[in-house]
């Protein structure tokens, strides 16, 4: 179950990075409200994924000691 959750979080993070880095300036074509929603979506997807990654990394490092 955790694998599926982590997989979806990773896919969401990659898709947000791709949307922001597109050459057709995706972010500049949005209205101010859409920009706020997009930023909140990005935070809600990326922060839990990064926290889970670093917790898993620290846990694995601690067990290897």
Task: Please tell me about this protein's structure.
It contains 2 helices and no strands. With 65 residues, the chain is mainly alpha-helical. It has one domain. The longest helix has 33 residues, at 32-64.
List keywords for this structure.
65 residues
Give a brief outline of the structure.
This protein is mainly alpha-helical and 65 residues long.
Give the domain tally: 1
Low-confidence spans:
none
Task: Report the order of strands and helices.
Answer: HH
- Biggest sheet features: none
Class of secondary structure makeup = mainly alpha
**So how many helices?**
2
Strand content: under 5%
Radius of gyration: 15 Å
The rounded distance between the terminal residues' Cα atoms is 27 Å
Q: How many DSSP-defined strands?
A: 0
How helical, in percent, are the residues? over 70%
Average pLDDT confidence is 77
- Overall 3D form: elongated
Question: Helices, strands, pairings?
Answer:
Layout: H1 2-20, H2 32-64
């Amino acid at each position: 179950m955790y694998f599926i959750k982590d997989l979806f979080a990773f896919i969401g993070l990659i898709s947000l990075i791709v949307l922001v880095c597109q050459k057709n300036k995706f972010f500049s074509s949005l209205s101010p409200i859409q920009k706020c929603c997009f930023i909140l979506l990005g935070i809600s997807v990326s922060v839990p994924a990064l926290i889970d990654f670093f917790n898993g990394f620290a846990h694995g490092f601690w067990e290897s000691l």
